[in-house]
Amino acid sequence: MYLDEILAAQKRGETRGVTSVCSAHPYVIKQTLRVFERPLIEATCNQVNQFGGYTGMTPEDFVQYARKIARENNFPFENIILGGDHLGPSVWQNEPSDVAMEKAEILIRDYVEAGFVKIHLDCSMRLANDPKGALDVEISASRAARLASIAEMSGYENLRYVIGTEVPLPGGITEHGDGIFVTKVEDTHQTIEITRQAFYKAGLQSAWERVIAIVVQPGVEYGDDFVSPYHPDAAGQLSLFIETQPLIYEAHSTDYQTRQALINLVQDHFAILKVGPALTFALREAVFALAMMENELLSPQNRSNIIPLVDDAMVEKPEYWIKYYRGDERMKAFKRKYSFSDRIRYYWAEPVVQQALGKLLRNLGQKPLPLTLLRQFVPDLYSLAKHTGGLTPENILLGKIQATLDDYAQACNPSPRD
Known about the structure:
By secondary structure, this protein is α/β, with parallel strands linked by helices. The chain is built from 16 helices and ten strands. It has helices at 2-11, 26-35, 59-72, 97-114, 137-152, 185-201, 205-208, 236-242, 259-267, 277-297, 306-316, 329-338, 351-364, 371-377, 382-388, 393-412, and strands spanning 18-22, 40-44, 81-87, 118-121, 160-163, 211-215, 221-222, 227-228, 248-251, 270-275. The chain starts with a helix and ends in a 6-residue tail after the last helix.
């Protein structure tokens, strides 16, 4: 299995990793298939679950969705590694533990039966009837083992597990310096040992042999308008510690790190690099650039008006951003468009936004886009336009995503597809 190859390579001292693409956007998945020969595509518990999640997809729906994109792009579906991220009771943390864990068991079962093979067990959150304060690591470990036992009932020996309770806040943090730290070695060792004991107590010795990684915080994070870069020295002790273990690290929130920072992460055994919002942020940049070109080329009555329409959709359904964006109304409006947290990604599937995007692409796809406008609004793609004789709107969408994926491809050092 490819994940085993990455683990073995790391233990041989090779700088190899794998990019974990956490996005359901079709353009992101499409370009991922063009960049990687063995792509790892992940769905999260909030995004995809037995009740549909915010995408409206169950795990089986997501698999069929990925299969359709692969077929449309002549990509062998069997080369895709499907992962489930933050699988546990997170979606139901406001419910009592017995109810939340029963739903988490169904979640795990559905993911495994649908064909997901990389399973991140995340039971780090306090449930409604748990004591106040941080959840005890032994409770978290026992719940993770409970979910692993459900997964193991499938009989699939290709399952690979990721453990770890020190996961960054989904979607980034809200304040500069808020919650940015490096996991302590002693905490990492404790998590591994207590989780191992919980697995063994549950009779899951075979499953424990297939735990390949632990999630820790290497000190990388991002917020609305800042990125905290990776500092190898700060994570030096963590890097040395994992060399004594049969595991690698999985790093979350690596979005917006520089290429060199990503390379350094993989060198320091953070060999699974998760990225999501940075990819849809790049897509958003492309959509906005196209909208600016549309404003220059078409009369007002013929424009898609996608920028105000997507903001209207966000204002009408604020549940995906309201807890994350602070400030007065002007500042919130700014963040809805431009925040690195990229809560706008939840709205691309809204019917009115889909219709506007379709109109934008049709409006600008009738004839070649002027080089002068390409240089003005997508200067990073201008040289490509000169060499290819022009760019289509879809070239611009995919090109922006490609630029981010290229950094990960270089850091992880697989052979990118031509």
